[in-house]
Design brief:
Radius of gyration: 20 Å
Shape: globular
Helix content: 40-55%
Largest sheet: 7 strands, parallel
Strand order of the largest sheet: 10-11-9-8-12-13-14
Strand content: 15-25%
Distance between the termini: 44 Å
Number of helices: 15
Oligomer: single chain
């Protein structure tokens, strides 16, 4: 079995980064969280516009997502920042993270007295955590402890032809060794539910795959029917059209290739953590940031992100490894794209060889190599989904 070098957390989980997360329980505390993190090297803030004036399942998804991010093993400690009157309380956020036994502190603005005092106290907590974890050493760990998030954005015809299938080869290698991969973006799997269902390990999982994708199709159909602007009715972007994709089904046929040939073992909801290891399907929309956030909340330590059109985006504290199948995109965006799967199109690499290259890069990144998004400080993909 192959290995990588990661950080062993208090609850036994494996992290591939060693950061302190500063998480506001509500948008009102976002600036304080930013200022705390900005004052402590290695600390990262997770600012968001949610946590208040939400009810029901919409608020529950927000709560589970923020707790899941705080539980992710890439974070050795968490400072929770609350306002004090929010519906999703800072205490509830901290309680959800506490079972990981990681370092954890809570500061509440209305209790401390003002934003200046709260920032000062939060900085003290975060600095103390960072000093404590700075001496932690990486240790060799089996690939079975890795969980990948499979995401993509700005697709073109090369995505489904080479980039996604090459990533599928790498994903299969992770799963074959006992690790996990999460396929998501149900808005980009419309029309292929029966194909994916044939790869389920049992009938229950097959039924869950079909049910989830068809429910997403119905939600999209309702939104289209009630749209007041015909320009808003396209299921794929103008960039996808310009890149040579003719329909959402054509995109779906390429998008599913990220998952390789392994059997699906579970379908789980956005904001939840899977109870099984292997190839997983997360019920989520197609927004890049919402997908990545859900995968990180589920426990993914690393995101693999094919893009034919190109994007600079990354996620705070979790490496996003970007792959393109378009040689032209790679040449234009070398500072943002990590791997050029367009070598398959050039004829200088086979699909299997490219998959092996992606797999090797996954292990290198898991062992500490920075992705280009990390090196440039890109963190745009943190975005908690909202329910209608």
């Amino acid at each position: 079995m192959d290995t990588f070098w990661g950080y062993r957390r208090e609850n036994g989980a494996a992290g591939v980064r060693c950061h302190i997360a500063v998480i506001p329980s509500v948008f009102c505390a976002a600036k304080v969280a930013q200022r705390i993190a900005a004052s402590v090297p290695g600390a990262i803030s997770f600012t968001h516009p949610v946590g208040c004036s939400q009810v029901g399942e919409d608020l529950e998804v927000t709560a589970k997502s923020l707790i899941g991010v705080g539980r992710n093993p890439n974070f050795a400690g968490v400072v929770v920042v609350g306002l004090g009157c929010e519906r999703f309380t800072p205490g509830e956020l901290a309680e959800g993270i506490a079972s990981t036994s990681k370092r954890l502190e809570v500061v509440v603005i209305q209790e401390v007295g003002d934003s200046i005092k709260t920032t000062e106290l939060g900085v003290r907590h975060a600095r103390s955590m960072m000093q404590a974890v700075s001496s932690e050493k990486r240790e060799e760990m089996p690939v079975s402890e890795l969980m990948l998030g499979l995401n993509c954005g700005g697709s073109d015809m090369t995505s489904g032809l080479v980039a996604n299938p090459s990533l599928g080869v790498a994903s299969d290698k992770i799963v074959a060794q006992g690790g996990s991969s999460i396929l998501s973006e149900l808005t980009e799997l419309l029309g292929v539910e029966e194909i994916l269902a044939r790869r389920a390990e049992n009938q229950e999982v097959a039924d869950d795959i079909v049910k989830a994708i068809r429910a997403m199709e119905e939600r999209l159909s309702n939104q289209i029917r009630h749209s007041s602007n015909d320009k808003r009715k396209n299921l794929i972007s103008t960039g996808n059209y310009d890149g040579g994709l003719s329909s959402v089904v054509e995109k779906s046929l390429g998008s599913m290739k990220k998952s390789g040939d392994a059997k699906f073992v579970q379908v789980f909801k956005y904001g939840d953590a899977p109870s099984k290891k292997g190839l997983l399907l997360m019920d989520s929309p197609g927004h890049d940031g919402e997908v990545t956030t859900g995968q990180v909340a589920a426990g993914a330590q690393l995101i693999c992100f094919p893009t034919g059109r190109g994007t600079p985006t990354g996620f705070p504290g979790v490496p996003v490894l970007k792959i393109t199948g378009n040689p032209g995109t790679y040449e234009r965006m070398k500072e943002n794209i990590d791997l050029n799967a367009g070598k398959v199109i050039w004829g200088i690499s086979s699909m299997m060889d490219m998959g092996e290259e992606i797999y090797s890069e996954i292990l290198a990144v898991a062992s500490g190599k920075l992705t280009k998004a990390e090196a440039l400080g890109h963190d745009e993909q943190f975005c908690v989904t909202r329910l209608p």
